[in-house]
Amino acid sequence: MNTRSKLEAKELEQLERLIRETPIEIDLVNSTMNKYESSRYTKQSESSRTSKKMRQRVMMITATAAMIFSFLFVTSLISPTMAATIKQVPVLSSIFKLAGDLGLQTADEKGLSTKLNASVTHDDFTLNVSEVVFDGTRVSIGIERPHKEDEKETLSDRISNIELFINGNPINSFGRENSMNGIFLNPGKDNDSAIIEFVDERNQGGRPFPEQFDLTLSTTITGIQDPLIIDIPVKNKIEDYVTLQPNVSRQNDNIHFTVEKITLTPITTGITTRMVLTDNSTFTLPLLTMGIDIIDDQGHKIELIGGNGWNATNGSIHISDLRYHPFESVPKTITLKPYIHLFDENEMGAFQMDENNEPKIQYIPELEVTLPINSQK
């Protein structure tokens, strides 16, 4: 071993000893959340909501700010080579960056989200809002709590109710009449974080959200009497988007299927469709669970995030707003491939499952639509 190698080995030993002897609590998390996919559809008297499909792979290493400070102090005692190595250690990362939503990751990477440092504390429980993004249709809010070793429930488990207000008005006031305007609570980067998401219903008889507004988040935590209330500034930072209204239709038996609107942003691909039963019958299984695969001209399929659905005229018309991951770049064409789920004949309401334990589907080729995408706002 040469003299330089001996010096670097000695520096490594010194660094390891200093870190081990530093009286600072460190929380290192290295976990992988396997793919989770569920399809659950609940038919209501006048409305139905399409369930969310989520895939998430999370790899995260975090350290406290005090630990970062200790690292910087140690680097001043060692060689430039070792200092450069230490600077590559991962530190605290955005919820959006580590969540399994490609659009939110893009928002974080391209500076399309708004970083916040808002928090509120009740009865020794602190809720932080660290990040928010709005692309004109969906609003996503990153929330966190400080980590506690003895905390067994996830942050999502502790949340029993969420209320949202836009400029002082409940979000339901922006929806259609009798709207439920759902609020979705999605996984964050770990058990101490989550993502609150909600969308407008402009394509289902509601009003669009303002381009900029003050959002009030009221969250009820189990075991705490008073709700935690935080005011959040929200602004649409998206300038690069494509909106099309093709109104292209296909027919299969008594199903009249129309693609009404397509919106492409760096964060979300939005598809609005209308399905009419021409014999005035009512939607039942399996049509109630009809989904759509979206494929670009290169054969790439984008992943479904979630959606909203509404049954009008006593159930013979169904309007869907589906949200997917964004395309990496604006494609020349996209193909919509509607499908239905196959159900188990021996168990009512249960899907047939394939060898990968995923629900089996059957495409409806007569309803397939391929559309050119013109890069026009």
Structure, briefly:
By secondary structure, the protein is mostly beta strands.
3D architecture notes:
The protein is mainly β and 377 residues long. It has two domains: 93-238, Sandwich (Immunoglobulin-like), CATH 2.60.40; 242-372, Conserved domain protein (Immunoglobulin-like), CATH 2.60.40.1640. Helix content is 14%, strand content 38%. It is built from six helices and 24 strands. The chain has helices at residues 3-21, 65-75, 80-86, 95-98, 102-109, 155-158; strands at residues 36-37, 42-43, 47-49, 53-54, 114-122, 125-134, 138-144, 159-166, 169-170, 183-187, 193-199, 212-221, 228-235, 242-244, 248-252, 255-264, 269-277, 291-296, 301-302, 304-312, 317-324, 333-341, 361-363, 369-372. It is globular, with a radius of gyration of 24 Å. Mean pLDDT is 79; it is low at 2-7 and 15-92.
Helix and strand arrangement:
Layout: H1 3-21, E1 36-37, E2 42-43, E3 47-49, E4 53-54, H2 65-75, H3 80-86, H4 95-98, H5 102-109, E5 114-122, E6 125-134, E7 138-144, H6 155-158, E8 159-166, E9 169-170, E10 183-187, E11 193-199, E12 212-221, E13 228-235, E14 242-244, E15 248-252, E16 255-264, E17 269-277, E18 291-296, E19 301-302, E20 304-312, E21 317-324, E22 333-341, E23 361-363, E24 369-372
Helix pairs in contact: 2-3
What are the defining features of this structure?
eight-stranded antiparallel sheet, Immunoglobulin-like, mainly beta, 6 helices, 24 strands, five-stranded antiparallel sheet, disordered N terminus, globular, 377 residues
